[in-house]
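User: Here's a protein and a ligand (zinc ion). What would the complex look like?
Assistant: Let me lay out the input and then the predicted complex.
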Amino acid sequence: MKTLLLSRAALEGRTVDVLIEGNRFKTISETPIEGTFDRTIDASGKILVPPFYNGHTHAAMNLLRGYADDLQLMDWLQNHIWPAEAHLDDPIVYAGTRLSILEMIKSGTVFFNDMYWYAPAVLRAAEDMKVRAAIARQAIETSPGVNNPTNVESNSILESMIGSCSSRVFLTYAPHAIYTVCGDSLREMHAKAADEKSYYHIHVAETRTEIESCAKLHGGMTPVAYLDSLGVLDDRTIMAHCVHLSDDDIRIIRERSAVIVHNAQSNLKLDSGFFPFKRAVSDGGCRAILGTDGCSSNNSMSMFSEMKTAALMAKTVADDPTVAPAAQVLEMATAGGAAAFGIDAGVIAEGRLADAMLLDSSNSLLVPGFNLASDLVYAADSSCVDTVVCDGNVLMENRVVPGEDEIVEAARDAAARLVRG
Ligand SMILES: [Zn+2]
């Protein structure tokens, strides 16, 4: 089994050696670990922490970063994003996803829960770059019960690929939203997800328009109540956004143990509204994690800025600075994110999957270093991340990701093709 030693790292105030055997933490010891190892990283002066788990992405949209901003939602979608997306193909999505994964690694993220077109390219990119990923079998219907043929083809390719992939990647069922997938299909996909113990990934209650049209179509119900009436809410249901929630919605989500993915920056940029953090999480007891959403509505994949925005927004919305304390927000982005997808990681401990990052303690953003959680949520950025390990593999050391130049060049070419058509 291959071995990796992180020597003399700072972990929760101690100096430790960390031995990784295969893909798990084998030994964490204050006494130096002697022996010969396949690779040793000198971690002195570095702080060892869990990396980030991004709960909701459309990774390949990194190719549309800055392409159309500061517009009304429907103008943005109908006149800019959808026409560009009409030019998507497998190589473009592969190039865009690799750019996105590069950005994620450089900002300390090792997992993303994706939903996008040409998902086999997303799966290949995740495998090639050795990160963890949940890949969507996406449904967006052209008429009730009829999935878009591009998705049908992608989903069948995904199913033929997944058997020979690493344990880092898995498939989800991903009906896009209640307004793009009919009730029968929402139920059918959930039955398959339940059969396979797979996850069910859907956009929920993102905009006011969605709330209004749901009430009109479904007898006054909210999107959460409608999904509950279909029986599709459980602890494997991953609900992106949940911006507009009634008290009853919050009770339902808590009782079903469904997972909310809070995408603070996307919600702010698209003017979707303010997630009720205090009502839903602090007081309501719902499970919630963090996501960046697609890059064209963010416009980065950094979980650092996502954490900061989520914490600040929660305080202002609740008119209470004690809401969303740093340690809680950090947990949502790390251990909570991993746990929501059944990934045995997000904590640095013997026996757990070996996902970690080393932070450069001499970076001015981490000085003087009174409270690491506060520093990570409110001050740090990607420049603090020195080394990233996922599943026992070193993805970045000294801020260098192998192949970076080629990934960036390929993404520039793909973006040009995407907007030119
Ligand atoms: Zn989304």
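Summary: The mean pLDDT is 97.
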